[in-house]
């Protein structure tokens, strides 16, 4: 076996192991990574050599360490996602950045986000599924949380728990703010 084929085989096995360990289907990985289902399948079977960009997208979706992908160690005791490696998305609204802290397999069940609001930033959400609740703890600044017709202002250290199965929004008040948001689906 050549060094190239050994690396290729280990890469294929590592990606498949990471996907199955997280309980994700090929379709789920394709949605999370932006890599087609057929390409993910070909890579896992060792039939295709992925580009660095494709590998990066897959490792981010699977939340595995890009550099350690070929490492022989399996199932680390402590999984670390470095701050710069955590996926960041723009919020539905304006002046909001959302860093995803929860693992990909938690989507739709128990999601954790680090939400940064610029001055005047607003996170505006349509209703989530029935019984969904959000738990928001303010780390910096001042915000106002609205769920349905009720609003509450939060200061540093305050936590708001509210129903998210109705229209809701979170707005920075008097400057930038930062919060941890946990979305708990029923």
TrEMBL record:
Pfam families: HTH_3. PROSITE patterns: HTH_CROC1 (PS50943). Residues 15-69 form the HTH cro/C1-type domain. Keywords: DNA-binding. SUPFAM superfamilies: lambda repressor-like DNA-binding domains, RmlC-like cupins. It comes from the Bacteria. The keyword Iron does not apply. The keyword DNA-binding applies. This is XRE family transcriptional regulator.
């Amino acid at each position: 076996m050549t060094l190239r084929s050994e690396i290729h085989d280990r890469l294929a096995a590592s990606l498949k192991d990471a996907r199955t360990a997280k309980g994700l289907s090929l379709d789920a990985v394709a949605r999370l990574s932006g890599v087609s289902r057929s390409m993910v399948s070909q890579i896992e079977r060792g039939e295709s050599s992925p580009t660095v960009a494709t590998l990066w997208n897959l490792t981010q979706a699977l939340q595995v360490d890009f550099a350690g992908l070929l490492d022989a160690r399996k199932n680390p005791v402590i999984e670390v996602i470095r701050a710069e490696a955590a996926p960041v998305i723009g919020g539905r609204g304006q002046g909001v950045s959302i860093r995803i802290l929860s693992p990909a397999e938690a989507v739709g069940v128990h999601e954790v986000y680090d939400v940064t609001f610029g001055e005047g930033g607003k996170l505006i959400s349509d209703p989530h599924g029935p019984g969904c609740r959000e738990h928001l703890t303010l780390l910096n600044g001042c915000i106002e949380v609205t769920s349905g017709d009720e609003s509450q202002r939060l200061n540093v250290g305050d936590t708001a728990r509210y129903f998210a199965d109705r229209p809701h929004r979170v707005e920075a008040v008097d400057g930038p703010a930062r919060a941890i948001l946990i979305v708990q689906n029923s």
